[in-house]
Task: inverse folding
């Protein structure tokens, strides 16, 4: 029965009960006609109320179909609500999963970044103090970060941030320490020492002329390069001079042409002279030899991409011979080894010969003019009637106004190579130094000689004498592939040094 019919039904029941009680009570006492009428009226009233209640209930109760339809509608609503609730739960689960994956990926990337940064900045961490001052990385394996809770991922991320900050602090500390050391080194260096080169044209140099040769004051040269000047004496007499600083040193002699620059023997064009007890070196030496070796960068911008290698002699010209040892064989072997190494480094290499042929000197010079290389390098072996000499010599063309190392005739005519005198001087010096370091050979100096192929080159050019075939010990070395590789390594080191000189 519907709840809204219950009150009417109860009221009818109560009324009927009252009438029954009254009727029961009345049956025990004789009734008058009036009482009978009252009783009859009460019974009729109660029956009418019950009938009304019954008829009302009958008209308002839902049918079975309506109840089934209502129940089906409620079931549909319940199912839709359950589906909505399930979709909401799935969305929440997906959201949490995506958040966890994002946090895990961020934590993993951060940990990996910290590990990489820590490896790269190991020196900085060491300088900053004990490793304990930097928080350790998270113990958990970053690969399993997906299984961690969002709170744990957040904790790892915070640890990674703290570690990154500690590393940055260590790096900053190291940079500050380096800057402090650099400032201290600069403060202790001479005030005039600077990696910035002066233009020769702006230098104030006292000059004199003696025996038709122009000379410049060596003390003035030292001042312009920020160098200290000092005399050298022999038997209490001035025999030479030295100009130097912490990284550069040049030694000159009044008795002969050879001196040294940074410990490497260098033959100047003229000896140093004294005028009124003041030191002077020839102007041509200053411009074409000394200035290029003291300068940090060349004042002329030149390339260094194409290198021409000239293997000396060949074909009908065997060069120097010592028994079965022939110069033409070893020069080609060394030239090919050098070619292979240069090409591996990306240089373009042009060979004047690749087999046992003999291009004439004029043809070799013509090849240089045709292909216009950036550098020209001629390879030779030395020889002497005296079996004692051994060691390495490096030659460049004689500058105009200069003389050969073993001559006194002043060169007057200009050749194509003289346009590059300064660069050839630096190239010869660097290659000579590189070969000495690589082979441990005897230093016989950088020299000047009227050699056709380097005098007529159209670029900086040098000729190297890698050793003496006439020396019994040295000829065995030159024939050795291992020693040839050392020569090649020395030349490569020299080319690298020359490359750093170029602007």
Result:
């Amino acid at each position: 029965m519907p709840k809204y019919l219950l009150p009417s039904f109860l009221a009818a029941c109560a009324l009927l009960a009252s009438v029954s009680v009254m009727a029961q009570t009345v049956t025990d006492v004789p009734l008058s006609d009036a009482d009978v009428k009252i009783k009859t009226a009460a019974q009729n009233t109660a029956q009418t109320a019950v009938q009304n209640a019954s008829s009302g209930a009958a008209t308002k109760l839902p049918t079975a179909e309506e109840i089934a339809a209502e129940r089906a509608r409620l079931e549909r609503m319940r199912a839709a609500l359950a589906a909505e609730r399930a979709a909401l739960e799935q969305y929440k689960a997906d959201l949490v999963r995506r958040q966890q994956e994002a946090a895990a990926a961020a934590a993993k990337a951060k940990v990996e970044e910290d590990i990489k940064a820590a490896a790269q900045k190991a020196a900085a961490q060491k300088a900053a103090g004990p490793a304990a001052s930097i928080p350790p990385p998270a113990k958990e394996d970053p690969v399993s970060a997906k299984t961690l809770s969002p709170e744990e991922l957040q904790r790892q991320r915070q640890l990674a941030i703290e570690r990154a900050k500690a590393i940055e602090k260590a790096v900053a500390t190291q940079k500050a320490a380096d800057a402090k050391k650099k400032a201290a080194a600069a403060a202790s260096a001479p005030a005039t020492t600077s990696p910035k080169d002066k233009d020769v044209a702006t230098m104030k140099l006292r000059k004199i002329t003696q025996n038709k040769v122009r000379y410049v004051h060596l003390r003035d040269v030292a001042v312009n390069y920020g160098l200290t000047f000092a005399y050298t004496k022999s038997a209490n007499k001035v025999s030479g001079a030295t100009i130097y600083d912490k990284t550069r040193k040049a030694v000159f002699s009044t008795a002969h042409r050879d001196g040294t620059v940074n410990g490497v023997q260098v033959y100047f064009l003229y000896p140093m002279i004294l005028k009124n007890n003041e030191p002077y070196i020839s102007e041509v030496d200053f411009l074409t030899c000394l200035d290029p070796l003291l300068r940090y960068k060349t004042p002329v911008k030149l390339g260094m991409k194409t290198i021409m290698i000239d293997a000396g002699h060949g074909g009908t010209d065997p060069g120097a011979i010592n028994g079965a040892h022939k110069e033409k064989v070893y020069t080609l072997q060394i030239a090919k080894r050098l070619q292979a190494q240069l090409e591996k480094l990306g240089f373009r290499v042009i060979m004047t010969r690749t087999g046992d042929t003999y291009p004439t000197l004029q043809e070799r010079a013509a090849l240089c003019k045709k292909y216009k290389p950036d550098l020209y390098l001629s390879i030779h072996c030395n020889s002497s009637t005296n079996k004692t000499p051994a060691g390495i010599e490096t030659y460049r063309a004689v500058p105009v106004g200069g003389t050969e190392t073993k001559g006194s005739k002043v060169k007057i005519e200009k050749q194509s190579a003289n346009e590059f005198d300064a660069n050839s001087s630096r190239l010869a010096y660097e290659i000579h130094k590189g070969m000495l370091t690589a082979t441990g050979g005897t230093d016989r100096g950088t020299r000047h000689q009227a050699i056709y192929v380097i005098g007529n080159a159209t670029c900086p050019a040098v000729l190297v004498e890698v050793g003496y075939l006439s020396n019994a010990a040295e000829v065995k070395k030159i024939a050795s592939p291992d020693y040839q590789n050392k020569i090649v390594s020395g030349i490569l080191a020299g080319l690298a040094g020359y490359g750093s000189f170029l602007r």
